[in-house]
Amino acid sequence: MGVLPGIVLCLFLGSSATYALENGLARTPPMGWLAWERFRCITDCKAEPKNCISENLFLSMATRLHDDGWKELGYTRVNIDDCWPLHDRDTEGKLVADPERFPHGIAWLADQVHAMELQLGIYGDYGTKTCGGYPGTMGHLRKDAETFAEWGIDSYKLDGCNANISLMDEGYFEAGKALNQTGRSILYSCSWPDYQRGNGLPVDYKNIAAHCNLWRNFDDIQDSWDSVTSIIDYYGDPKNFASFGVVHGPGQWNDPDMLLIGDFSLSYEQSKAQFAFWCLFSAPLFMSNDLRDISPDAVAILKNKKLIAVNQDALGLMPRRVWQKKGGIELWYKDLSDGAKAVILWNRSNGGVALSLEFSFEEIGFKSGMTCSVEDLYATSGSPTNHTSSYNQYVDPSGGVAALRLTPVTNGAAPRAPVHIVI
Fold first, then answer.
1. Fewer Cβ within 10 Å of end Cβ, the chain: N or C?
2. Cα–Cα dist 242/129, whole Å
């Protein structure tokens, strides 16, 4: 008997080292709608019947995705976040949807969403309670995975409030393994790297990429431009890129959090900037807005097929920030699967005037003297134009972007490797 515990421990640790999620999902970044940023934890359906976390809210958003042309563009996921269940599990230890707000239950809701050829996601928390104070999954990993599979859930976001962070490496692995063992294909979204980062612990992104389809690794987005820019800056830091950019790709995506376009804080140009950056990031595109009441400008940004194509490109690479110059102007780019490059010129200045921003093709890894066809991905008219060696464009201040696609037309001299510089 004294030998057995050691044998069991070795077997368990060995399985952790060799097991990988490998569920075949999210070969391109997932797209859809997520409740949290716009609707938070509104549970008083008498005071706010249209906005409370309820089956009516998620059916309304699913209907909009289906009827208003979102589904055809790839926005196919409807995601429940926190505050959906009762505060106590049932006698069998199962989570129970609040019967006043979800009178038909989650399985029924999943059926309705599936009938619209969409997918339903749900939220849990690795700790003893969710961030909103509802039952956590600690001690119930397998039970919750089985319950979600029985209900027909298609994706699972596992948060990390009220949890022992030192246990997350093993716990999130076990939760993903439990999902796979249900036999149902369930997209797995992890929050564990953000909790480790926020507490000064090392983050093993290679391990995370092996066990999660997507993962949060920075602060929750808030409805503010400062929040958006802080995320972009975090993703643009070369040290951060070296840790998580290299594991990013088909089936395993960094998640900078939700899209704010159509909400309250961002200007039109800032909305264009967030969408352009999230598309270059190959980020999950989860809108968090009210699709029943959204402006035509916001719709046009979110339905931009040219930028969605950049987001869904088969290579699935993250962009690099090539330079930052004094006054708040930046150049970013990434490679695309057809040999083209996607580029962002960003004007963060607040001087009140548009600036003429220029970059050389060598700076983004093309050959010296190369001619490229340059397409403005936000232009609604006109055709791509040819340029040799460099390109410049006026970009509006206070967050404006030029989002471009450069396709080689002629060869030039050997390329110079781009470098990150701050001027």
1. N
2. 34
DSSP string, 113-135: HHHTT-EEEEEEESSSB-TTSSB
CA distance 304 to 306: 6
Structure tokens at 369: 């003297």
Q: Which of 81, 159, 257, 396 is catalytic?
A: 159
pTM over 0.90: yes
Question: CB within 8 A of 102, min separation 6: which ones?
Answer: 54, 55, 84, 109
Catalytic residue at 159?
A: yes
Is residue 113 within 8 A of residue 149, CB to CB? The reply is no
Is 338 among the catalytic positions? no
The CA-atom distances, in angstroms, between 9 and each of 5, 157, 176 are 6, 28, 20
Burial 62-74 (b: 16+ CB within 10 A, else e): bbbbbeeebbebb
Tokens at 210, concatenated: 């092996």
DSSP helix/strand/coil, 319: coil
Scored b (16 or more CB within 10 A) or e, 194-218 reads bbbbeeeeebebebbbbbbbbbbbb
* Type of residue numbered 133: G
Query: What would the pLDDT profile of 293-347 be if each residue is shown by its tens digit?
Result: 999 999 999 999 999 999 999 999 999 999 999 999 999 999 999 999 999 999 9
How many Å apart are CA 347 and CA 95, to the nearest integer? 48
DSSP code at position 249? B
Residue 126 to residue 191: CA distance in whole angstroms? 9
Stretch (H or E) spanning 305: helix 305-311
Catalytic option among 111, 219, 220, 233: 220
Q: How many whole angstroms separate alpha carbon 177 and alpha carbon 210?
A: 11
